[in-house]
Here is the input.
Amino acid sequence: MASLTVENLSVVYGQAIEAVNGVTMNVEEGRMTALLGANGAGKSTVLKAISGILEFEHGRIEAGRILLGDRPLGGMRAHARARAGVMHVREGRHILGPMTVEENIDVAGFAAGRRTRAQTRAIRERIYGYFPVLGERRRGTAGYLSGGEQQMLAIGRALAAEPRLVLVDEASLGLAPMIAEQIFEILARINEETGLTILIVEQNVGLALRHADQVYILENGRVAREGPPSRIGTREEISARYLGGVDQQAKAV
Ligand code: ATP
Here is the structure.
């Protein structure tokens, strides 16, 4: 597993739009860190800068460094970063809809270089252990899964690559509060049992405060506040001050 260091990161899109402006974060090895903030605060951009997919959106790192452990990621293409152990679960549940659940997992493992049957079987069973519903639906078409199950599969696909760092963008978006809570409980369990380093982006403040070890709040592309959940502020205050009161899912839990 690996720590992640983001140093003084600034990102622009096109020629002018400054999305991230001098962000510094220390994502500790084996911990779950949450990045909170309103729409447009720059959260997804930070994740894209880390995984290297910024370039596909005409985004550019203007300043700063990103290190996985002590290895600088700058200059590495997205696929090389994936091979180095950085997996990005993008917003919108990216799965292979026409394929079965199991094929989705196998393809992800294969893309990560897993070749033997024994390896393939072992990783499948590990993922089904964390997400039993995926095991039950293993022969089912992925596109017919519920939203929550698709999110679980998207996370499962990232795990199939046996990453060192997983970036999860708005896993709770559009899900029933109970399902979102369940996904976060599983992420916390994976984090605890395997020591996988996890960085999540969230708008659901309650979920993040309940499950993360460390929280960063972004505002207009800058870190406005950081600290452990016990010290960073209450859900109500963070929600009102930094997210314009948008935290309905957390209120419902
Ligand atoms: P959300 O919760 O809405 O996803 P966010 O905090 O993840 O918000 P980003 O998506 O990182 O925010 O966006 C930060 C800023 O960069 C916004 O002003 C957004 O409009 C702009 N932006 C994001 N992606 C692009 C892009 N591909 N091209 C141009 N501008 C972009």
Summary: Confidence is low (pLDDT under 50) at residues 248-253. The radius of gyration is 17 Å.
